[in-house]
């Protein structure tokens, strides 16, 4: 029997953190959550490099016997990438990340786990935690020194004993293999969710919300409502047999979220390989750019040096990335014209030579003008195609102080804007609970106009339920217009994840 996955992923910076150091990937054959640590020294770099190393495994050609060893080998490659990145930039020293990954092969799932990100399995309506946290507090529970209830409030509950780090030490992840049974629902998450939302509430959402996309949105919302002080990352995947998958709109485009998406990590197509040594930029403090190295399975086949091709699947480009591309096109059209260089010759050069040279200079001038025109036309066509694509997108945001449904993307390029409010709900944003208002300000993606309406309705209903009021989310107006890091201490395999961003070995995602 062949099974398939229907999946969704969501990552949010949360209510307190200034940057998102979580990363996650969800694809047809691979699910991963990585929770970076190391303060501004590079927790986001660590999680992004780890996801970049693992995405090459998202292929259907693994056998059940190979999948577990492939996971172990690739995670060790990711560890070496962290070591190499620290050697290139000592300011990154001390960075690390958790890793929880599931790799599908046929009707089995291979699992690898390091740290305190978790994997849960919902089967026959019962939710069970599959992974065991690699924390000091969990060790106390396992040895009978404290109870699980005491562990929930223990002052050292964030001290992680095993992580993937930049220290040159081999820490083997927990490895296991499980049967993928149709009807199962898997959830992977960082402790921004599991550390703040009780398990019974998580189970209620996973049981009652059928669509994975809606489930991850609801879980992130619950975590923020619970006052999560950490980054929040959730991946939900349903196991379907071929018959059930054929009757659903199963997700087919991989999703990359969190700091890995910001770093430009992309999914490789079936005929492509992951890059062997490719610089991956990741936003640092005050917009600085830090560069690490990505190494994928192709490195073994090519001696670890030759770069391999990367194919980007449609739909994986972020909205911010598209806006940057369009803005660069506008800038390029006005700044890249070839400068005219005067033809300076000796005064005593005879007039005959001057006349012979004029046709050549005139030809070069026309070629320059033609090239400039072609460049402007090409950039214009690319910009128009990009703009047309933006008008097929929808999101929920704020317009005239109200919760509104927008067509386009929340981005601008110079004087241009790429979104227009198409429906106002009548609900004022300043009347919503603070965490709900923050989500509206940050915007909420949607896959269609109907999806955006539904998300606005649910958001307003949840807010009204929170405030004890009756929601009135029906859209009322339809304006339509045409849119004209402080270095960490000496790296050790045990890292303490504290709330302070300035502590070495701190977990920030």
UniProtKB/TrEMBL annotation:
Gene3D superfamilies the record matches: PPM-type phosphatase domain (3.60.40.10)
Molecular-function annotations in GO: protein serine/threonine phosphatase activity
UniProt-listed Pfam families: PP2C_2
Transmembrane segments: 365-387
Segments for region (Disordered): 332-359, 461-509
Record PROSITE patterns: PPM_2 (PS51746)
Domain PPM-type phosphatase: 6-239
Amino acid composition bias (Acidic residues), ranges on this chain: 335-355
Compositional bias ranges of the Basic and acidic residues kind: 498-509
Protein origin, superkingdom: Bacteria
Keywords: Membrane, Transmembrane, Transmembrane helix
Ranges annotated as biased composition (Low complexity): 469-494
UniProt name for this protein: PPM-type phosphatase domain-containing protein
Lineage, opening ranks: Bacteria, Bacillati, Actinomycetota, Actinomycetes, Micrococcales
